[in-house]
From TrEMBL, chains A, B:
This is Homoserine dehydrogenase. NCBIfam families: PRK06349.1. One of its GO terms (biological process) is methionine biosynthetic process. It comes from Aequoribacter fuscus. L-homoserine binds at E188. It comes from the Bacteria. NADPH binds at K103. NADP(+) binds at C9, G10, L11, G12, T13, V14, G15, S16. Pathway: Amino-acid biosynthesis; L-methionine biosynthesis via de novo pathway; L-homoserine from L-aspartate: step 3/3; Amino-acid biosynthesis; L-threonine biosynthesis; L-threonine from L-aspartate: step 3/5. Belongs to the homoserine dehydrogenase family. Gene3D superfamilies: 3.30.70.260, Dihydrodipicolinate Reductase, domain 2, NAD(P)-binding Rossmann-like Domain. PROSITE patterns: ACT, HOMOSER_DHGENASE.
Length: 435, 435
């Protein structure tokens, strides 16, 4: 068997995971690759027990790995978008194939990097960038190649899914669960990236580009985090037959594409609603196959390494036969990537969940419903609870029929202006996810 | 773009679906393929409106399609294993790549057909043979290439899943629901193939061969149908926190491989337990990624066509670049396919669900539990219902801890011999499906 030489840059969680997976299952992986995969050079700033393997060269300067003429495939696992970009560019220019787990790099600089890779006749693969170990890039890019994708919706950030799951089952407040997630290592010290949906937006942009053949465009995503959600909302949603999930949603309609990350009520019959904890899951609706769902570990050393190795094997299989990987980075050739207009959020139509904190007075409900009905928004379901003893306010929960966001926000502003409305109206989009 | 010429043999459900999908989404599919896919020849015994497309040659003798020197990829959709085998062999010998949806053909004759394809340097692809539109072959063969597969368990027959789901929700008897499934076209007039698990066994053999790198061996599967299951069992299972699903299960342990198709109690927390109706789903436990789940339509014209087209696109992408598809049929080269000993069913260890129909007398329960405990089988949970008014018998439901089948069957025989036991003991295996 031919030997394919691998250079790994970065020995953090994913880097160590990749070295370990290749060591633990090397024989089985080589059989899949039809070649002997050999890590010959590691670039890591700090020393690490994994570096002490005979035959592996270790460099403190990761660029030494890129410049190593023996390396066939460079594996970029350092993260970030500055040095990582420079590294990937230099590897491509040196004629090396590249595998990365770096979603920010692909979401933000994918277009230019893919063009560069294509120019130099090498592959740039990134299965690990979205949904960890779930082979979702391959499914979308190859497995569903017979479909035009109508929409996709995914739980693509394990941190926010863990937080919402915990808040729901244990009726605990956001801040409380966030602290636990940080203690467990599921959330960073600065959790902004996860809880505000930025990480999910990066992944969504990648999925949408493959699904619709559109350019990667991180600015085209509406992003809303989970920090406003309360245990009360999770309970009310459940009472209405729904669960709240933090979803990345990409839709293609005649009006254009619409990419958004936000908390979403989804029907409890949807399997997606039962995906809890740090798990990830993506539901894709294709024109021929209908909806298909993919679930699994969205993060962690070994699951992410699983995706990195799958990319390596794909490339190695071709190199072993003296061929080149042919599947384009986004599943179609760069010249058929076509910009499609974005649907402005104001025009996006979904049902809505509204939670009002109102005075416990006669006539309040009738005022609220007449404001909604004047704007053509009808009510699908309603919950009004008796006031807690000694309290003057009640919660009023409304599930609307589908309504344009502009209409809905207009109605909400009017409701908030009522004297009987005691605080801002909580509003969460609803998606039925029907095929 | 290069033109890749397709010959389709068989215009039944899947054949028509394939022609329709290629017509409906041709442009999008060509972009994925990097080539113009063109159906130039159809072999169909009867005339069909789909044959009346300009430029498509139609032959009554399907072998005329195989012998057509222009065809690059032959798509076998006639089903069966006699003519289909001859057709595929002749196509391979003529140097054509082959795509098929024929699970029986692959499960029974895959080994020789793959060898023949390899000898002639062509690809033989069969994504549509298992779980319809779910790209499960690709996921297992390529997406999880970084893993050693520990086990997989799947709902891989839509007919039996529909029957069990309906029996459970509507508390209807097997025969009753089977008749409805037949009326809806979900079950054949002769349902044996589906309800006795033969179809699922074919699919399981294919999945196991890819998962473990073992030869396709249809004789190595233990197969048990769903005909014995009653609505009462579904209710008791639910009461115990489980659902009953007809699963194909393949496990690899130090003792060997074990392939079986049988009704199975699985915990309701498992997403697989919520996959209802004609849907299919496969759960795969990989050494690096842990459990990943794949769900979607397991049958039907368009979903199956989705899988057929994905295979065509995979092959076309390589041909368009004057390369050959390199991924071996089972994900590893034929010479590394290795026979692994089978674990005899008598030695397979699982928890068990037992339903006894016993006399409503003191001491019965103590007899039963002492028989179990003498054989080292401990009881995990128990349901005893008061007798229906006027009846002398009661149902006694026992959930055991893991026990070897031989031990369990011995105990069951002893329990059935008791005077107080009024009919055969219903026994169903339990799987927790923990990663």
């Amino acid at each position: 068997m031919k030997t394919i030489k691998l250079g790994i840059c970065g020995l953090g969680t994913v880097g160590s995971g990749t070295v370990n997976v290749l060591a633990a299952s090397g024989e089985a992986i080589n059989r899949r690759a039809g070649a002997t995969l050999e890590i010959t050079h590691i670039g890591a700033r700090r020393d690490n027990a994994l570096c002490n393997t005979a035959g592996i060269k270790v460099s403190r300067d990761i660029f030494d790995v890129v410049d190593d003429p023996e390396i066939d495939i460079l594996i970029e696992l350092i993260g970030g978008t500055t040095v990582a970009k420079e590294l990937v560019e230099r590897a491509i220019k040196a004629g090396k194939h590249v595998v990365t787990a770096n979603k920010a790099l692909i979401a933000e600089f994918g277009t230019e990097l893919f063009a560069l890779a294509s120019e130099h006749g090498v592959a740039l693969r990134y299965e690990a960038a979205v949904a960890g170990g779930i082979p979702i890039i391959k499914a979308l890019r190859e497995g569903l190649a017979g479909n035009e994708i109508n929409w996709l919706a995914g739980i693509i950030n394990g941190t926010t899914n863990f937080i919402l799951s915990e808040m729901g089952t244990a009726k605990r407040a956001f801040e409380d669960v966030l602290a636990e997630a940080q203690a467990l290592g599921y959330a960073e010290a600065d959790p902004t990236f996860d809880v505000e949906g930025i990480d999910a937006a990066h992944k969504l942009v990648i999925l949408a580009a493959i699904a619709f053949g559109i350019p990667l465009n991180i600015n085209g995503v509406y992003t809303e985090g989970v920090t406003r959600i309360t245990p009360a909302d999770l309970s009310f949603a459940e009472e209405l037959g729904y669960r709240i999930k933090h979803l990345g949603i990409a839709k293609l309609t005649d009006a254009g594409v619409n990419l958004r990350v936000h908390p979403t009520l989804i029907p409890e019959e949807q399997l997606l609603s039962r995906v809890n904890g740090v798990e990830n899951a993506v539901l894709i609706d294709g024109s021929a196959v209908g909806p298909t769902l993919y679930c699994g570990a969205g993060a962690g050393a070994a699951p992410t390494a699983s995706a990195v190795v799958a990319d390596i094997v794909d490339i190695a299989r071709e190199l072993a036969a003296d061929q080149l990987p042919q599947i384009p980075a986004l599943g179609v050739d760069a010249d058929s990537i076509t910009e499609i207009d974005s649907v402005p959020m104001a025009q996006v139509v979904t049902p809505w969940y509204l939670r009002l904190n109102v005075q416990d007075k006669p006539g309040v409900m009738s005022k609220v419903s007449s404001i909604l009905s004047e704007r053509g928004i009808s009510i699908e379901a309603l919950i009004q609870k008796p006031p807690t003893k000694g309290q003057q306010s009640v919660s009023l929960v409304v599930l609307t029929n589908p309504a344009e966001q502009a209409q809905l926000l207009g109605a909400v502003a009017e409701i908030e202006a009522l004297e009987t409305t005691l605080s801002d109206v909580m509003r969460i989009r609803v998606e039925t996810l029907k095929g």
